[in-house]
Amino acid sequence: MMPWTTSLAATDAQTINAALLVSALLFTCGLVGFLTRRNMIIMFLCTELMFQAAALALIAFGKVHQDLSGQVFVIFILTVAAAEAALALGLVVLLYRRRETLDSEAWSELRETS
Amino acid sequence: MLPRAEVVVRGRSVAGTLGQPYIPNLPRVGACSPREPENTAVAASGSRAGPLVFLAFLVSHMSPNLSSTASHLSDAVALPDPLLGHLSMLPTALLETAAVVPSAFLLTGAVAICAVGLVLLMQPGQQSLRLGGTVLGLAGFAMLIVEVLKRAVPAGADGGIPPVFPVVFGLLAVVGAVRVMTNPRPVFAALYFMLVVLAGGGMFLLLDAEFMAFALVIVYAGAILITYMFVLMLAQQSPVAGVGEAWYDRMPREAISGVIVGFVILATLSDAYFSPKAQIARDTTMVESAHAGTVASWQRLASMPKLLLETARVANPAVVSITSFDPETGRLDAVLTSGASEQITLPPSMMPDNSRQVGVELVSRFPAGLEIAGVVLLMALFGAVILARKQIELGEDERRTIAGMRRLTVEGEAGGSSATLGANR
């Protein structure tokens, strides 16, 4: 192999490694945020972070395998994320109207206290 | 990049000879000395030049000049040479588990440092703790990314241009993500999420996914985040004067256990992604699938006869029709205007662009998925409409008054009948 080809390949591998690391870190941040935040909107924002991490990992592994399935699956992830945002945010607004708070622990009993 | 790092480092009067890349006196691959994080933290918080020193640390570690560090490395830890050249795929490298263990420990240690930094960052209202958390988190991230990038480069090989863009986009994305989960103001959290999306789009570009990069920015930053903004405006309580944000935005719930759960998963993931075994498997796959990727691209071009003809006309304007196309080699037999037949080999630069290829892949390999995605979106539309049409029941205002909650309608205005509500809307 020519020297410049090996150096190009190394750069690709470095980019993929960096992308995988960033994806793992984004997923962790999303997970920790979902577990520790109390604001319902931020909790859903953190699930979006996890979606983002999954998309990045899919693209990186698609690059490893030189296969476009990874990119196609990111389209599906975008679809699910959009649907989830529409429904979840509608629900959050309804819940906010009932309790006047975004605190998720206001709903820890999973029913309306009357 | 390198000379600037030297200047900064020399400005801090760290020993380094002119014209030589600065090699910090830290253990390299395979050693996790407890001194290392301290050194970084001290260097980064020592003076106002802290961020610069941090950058210098990052850049000097990314120095592609691995061969000059090899001797340094081998007296730091007695690493066997075959392990350094993991791209040479010597099976003996796998057997040297004794040398692999401290290397894996380095990643885990960096993850632990990040975790401690994150816990400190989540403490509400204590500036000094949060500053320490920032420094620790950045140091942990620097260790992680330096180690991970180093594992991607075969030893003895020139690492090429130091990968500036992946590091910059990665840092932006991670900083944004941490701010999303620690910022007490929800609106700012949403804005930082936009930063994450943009940096992620940059990462996608670096990974040759141009279409998805722009689709991501349009759909996420343009549509989903705007929806979040609207909901925040509809549902957020205004900050109380003197106290600031609502208490549930300032106080994290079970910060320490949450961080432990998250970072155990991160340690597992980083070990699964970056262990020498996984790295070798990934490098092998990349080499093996390079040809398959080219063939697949040509096959997608072959499935679009009109585009194939246009492409052939770019190569030779006299082409009238194409009789055969071989995806293995990119060679085609064409009939020219003169009636003669000619063989043309298409260069790789004439492959269809990324958006065309993704489109062909989507409709030819995943038609069912495409239909299901459409159904999911339609159902989400119905669901959102039904949720938004939810009526406030008659008499709810009276019940809310008894429960001590705010009325939904203005008092004295027909007492919350549905007619009033309709007029209010």
Describe the overall structure.
The complex is a heterodimer of chains A (114) and B (425). By secondary structure, chain A is an all-alpha fold. Chain A has a single domain, classed as Orthogonal Bundle (Helix Hairpins), CATH 1.10.287. In chain A, 80% of the residues lie in helices and 0% in strands. Chain A contains 3 helices and no strands. Chain A has helices at 3-36, 40-65, 69-99. Chain A is elongated and about 55 Å long. With 425 residues, chain B is mainly alpha-helical. Chain B folds into 3 domains: 2-286, no CATH class; 287-352; 368-424, no CATH class. Chain B contains 19 helices and 3 strands. In chain B, α1 crosses α3 (50-61), α2 (35-45) crosses α8 and α7 (97-121) packs antiparallel against α13 (255-274). Chain B is flat. Residues 1-95 and 413-425 of chain B have low confidence and may be disordered. The chains are: A mainly alpha (114), B mainly alpha (425). Chains A and B meet through α1, α2 and α3 of A and α8, α9, α10, α11 and α13 of B.
- Lateral strand order in the biggest sheet of chain B: 1-2-3
The number of distinct structural domains of chain B comes to 3
Outline of chain A, from the CA principal axes? elongated
Mean of residue pLDDT of chain A? 86
Q: What percentage of residues of chain A falls in helices of 4 or more residues?
A: over 70%
Binned, the helix content of chain B reads 55-70%
Major sheet description of chain B: 3 strands, antiparallel
> Which CATH architecture of chain A is right?
Orthogonal Bundle
In short:
Chain A is mostly helical and about 110 residues long. Chain A has three helices and no strands. Chain A has a single domain, classed as Helix Hairpins.
List the helices and strands and how they pair.
The complex is a heterodimer of chains A (114) and B (425).
Chain A (H helix, E strand, L loop, with lengths): L2 H34 L3 H26 L3 H31 L15
Chain B lengths: L1 H10 L23 H11 L4 H12 L4 H11 L4 H4 L6 H5 L1 H25 L5 H26 L11 H19 L3 H21 L3 H26 L11 H4 L4 H20 L1 H27 L2 H11 L3 E8 L4 E6 L4 E5 L8 H12 L1 H22 L7 H8 L14 H7 L1
Antiparallel strand pairs in B: 1-2, 2-3
